[in-house]
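Pilot study result, target chain (415 residues):
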Amino acid sequence: MTIRALSPLLALFLAFLPGCADAGSSSPGPASARAGAGDDYDAQAGRGAGAPLAGGGGTSAAAGYSGLTGSAAGSNVLGTSPPTTWNSAKSAPVSEARLQAEYATWKLAHVEACSNGSLVVVNEGSVVSEGIAYGMLLSVAMTDRPLFDGLWRFYQEHLDKNGLMNWKTNKCEAPGNNNANAATDADLDATMALVQAAARWPNAGAGYLGKAEALAGKIVQFETEMCDGRRTLRPGDAFGGCTDTGSPRVNPSYFSPGYYKVFAHYFSAQAATWLSLSDASYQLYAVYQARMNNLVPDWSSPDGSDIGGQYWYDACRTPWRVAVDYAWTGDSRARIFMQNISNWIDAHGGLPQAAQQQNSAFVGAFALAGAYDQAKFDSYMSGWLAAELDDKPYFQGTLRVLYLLVAAGKFSSTL
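Predicted structure:
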């Protein structure tokens, strides 16, 4: 499917894009930039201290994955008639007015303008590609094109040799390649934001969809590889995966199976790669939940085996990634994952008590895991929204608003 062939349909896709304003990382750098699974980036991000809570070993309640391969039977995954419905529960308390207020608070706290016209999301005085991409997702959802374009400009001004943004720069650093290399989660989020922007502003003449396709192609080329017959998502373009003998690892919180199906729909030449990555994600999720009593690790080896990773400030985002897939496609494997997470939460006192840290990065993602059932979701959301949480740092505060968009059904796939 070519870009030109899709363009007449964008107006139709726009009708299915929920609007928030229509009516009025742990991204690691290369191995040299990290210090193992508990790298210094977490400390810089103000993500809390103390030992992570292990998921637990032994046998698991991670049932239901057996026999599910490819697009699970009964799941509303990508096909000739892509879904246009929201499959998850929605949270009524997350109103339009609340989203607007939360977004305004986030923007005031974390967004700054650079003298050359680009805009940045600031993290403890510096900029990470993860934050730029999160900001792109937020701004397109909130119909804030000036912020979207300013962030995308900064992304493009700081490309590495592969055409992907350097994972970390100084605040408003001059354009150029600082050789920090790329982080895959940021590149995926930026690509998804560009797809959403093409549907949000179809007559803008900005070529967002073509840029998304080009960026997706770079991710496929430089941030995926085959490992033992499985298409594997590398955590960056300069480290990880199975070909990095010094640091053979993957980051489960980067897996984005919902995005993959959207990319497969829009970028037909890449479709086989994206759909195989979606299948690989659920294969590895099943491995993780089986050995971690329904949780997932920050990091693992490419085959899913344990390298000492726990459920901490990387892994905490994984329920969000999977909840997005369920909301967009209804994939039954996503529902199983969410049910398993929910079982862990319920066995540990519910929300917010079960969360390893009292902030929205943990509590909010856990809340989204309950979205396969309206009553459970309402209970989890009540626990999240009523809790006293420390969401002032960039990471926690940014994820809070992203999670609220999903909770409200305002995070569109554009399908």
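One observation from the pilot: DSSP finds 15 helices and six strands in the chain. A full batch analysis is planned for the follow-on phase.
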